[in-house]
Amino acid sequence: MKNKTMYAVLGVLSLLGPMSGYDIKKFCDKSISYFWNENFGHLYPVLSRLESSGLIARDSPDEAVRRKSYHITDKGAAVLRAWLVEPVEYQPERSELLLKLSFGNRMELEDILAMLEEAKVRNELKYKQLDQIHSYYMGSEDAKKKPQYPFWLAALRYGITSLEASLKWFDETKIFLMDYHKNQ
Amino acid sequence: MKNKTMYAVLGVLSLLGPMSGYDIKKFCDKSISYFWNENFGHLYPVLSRLESSGLIARDSPDEAVRRKSYHITDKGAAVLRAWLVEPVEYQPERSELLLKLSFGNRMELEDILAMLEEAKVRNELKYKQLDQIHSYYMGSEDAKKKPQYPFWLAALRYGITSLEASLKWFDETKIFLMDYHKNQ
DNA sequence: AAACTCATGTAATAGGTTACATGATTCA
DNA sequence: TGAATCATGTAACCTATTACATGAGTTT
Predict the structure, then answer these.
(1) What count of Cα atoms within 13 Å lies in the side-chain half-sphere of residue A156?
(2) Contact A103 B151 (CB under 8 A)
(3) To bridge B92 with a disulfide, which of A34, A37, A56, B75 should be the other Cys (CB 3.0-4.6 Å)?
């Protein structure tokens, strides 16, 4: 697996213009955390490496400035474009929820149901957040003007669609497992 | 994040009885790869550590036997049970597909569509495989007798439901992006 | 005899997380 | 003035991946 933080940084700088590491992290947290996450401990070293390899550069080379704002260079833009057309790497699935569920006959039914309920509540919360952003997006003339509009909307709908499907599954599964348990 | 390979091993040995590292890997690949994956390079060291900490033990302590079959110990079963009732750890999302899509205005439309088509084809294949297993499961008296039956069925349905939702999204999204592009 | 599957492992590396440290700036 | 937020970074650690190495047994 390649270092994807690097490409995430290049992409964000390319789309949103000059930003600091702190800004990039903030943007991830508030706007794309439903499909992408970064943390400082990895982000800052990657920024240093991107700078020293010339893929990004500081806006003001003044060493005294505390806040380091970066922009993407031509070289960085070329590297980003090359990555974008490469096939999406296969990501081996790892779902702790399904792993635990598959060991369900080593658990009490009530513990399984509690686990499912907890996960469902988490997903409901995420769903509500995405739905709000979606409503905003659909109504905002400002958002529609941005070149990334259709892509961000599509990504948002992926999140919403997946969450809807999972919420339906949680309800069905809880009923299924309760019924099954009763009829044993 | 905790070492989940360890718990996966304990769970599999607990459910399926004595197995070798090779068996566990084979089982992951053929039966649960849609939600769990392991690789040898991690699995074998974890097996060694589990053995030396007494959570699993060799079936035959004969050093000459090449094939090392392990079973779970009482101590291991206790550790497994404790993990099963712990809350599922939050897993930060990282979808390369959605990341690339969100940088869509740095790509050609045809490249985006090709990327989506490729991912869709992959998901269709997975969907067909899961659907076949599901059919087998629903029809097999043998499968129904096993205590893990309802849980494996539920997990299977999670995979199927998610894939269905994603396939629908791929179709909708390709049309949406093409229409949007045409009307610009 | 060659090819394939069974079977176990190690070493190097990458990729990312957690915890810690530090100090400036802004706001109540 | 104290708290919160802004802002950057490092060190230790862990988890997992990749590549490599080895050899037995089985099938074609």
Answers:
(1) 18
(2) yes
(3) A37
* pLDDT at residue number A125: 96
> Helices A4-16 and A40-52 meet at what angle, rounded to 10?
80
Range of the domain at B62: 4-84
Q: Is residue B91 part of a domain?
A: no
Asked whether residue A62 is domain-assigned, the answer is yes
Q: Using a CB cutoff of 8 Å and minimum separation of 24, what contacts does B39-42 make? A: B42/B5
**A179 CB near a chain B CB, below 8 Å?**
no
The CB-based long-range contact list for A79-87 (8 Å cut-off, 24+ gap) reads A79/A10, A79/A55, A80/A7, A80/A10, A80/A11, A80/A14, A80/B103, A80/B106, A81/B106, A81/B107, A83/A7, A83/A10, A84/B100, A84/B103, A84/B106, A84/B107, A84/B111, A85/B107, A85/B111, A87/B115, A87/B118
**Would the CB atoms of A103 and B81 count as touching at under 8 Å?**
no
What percent of chain B shows pLDDT beyond 90?
A: 95
Number of domains in chain A: 2
CATH of the domain at B30: 1.10.10.10
Residues A172 and A143 in one domain: yes
Question: What's the pLDDT score for residue A1?
Answer: 67
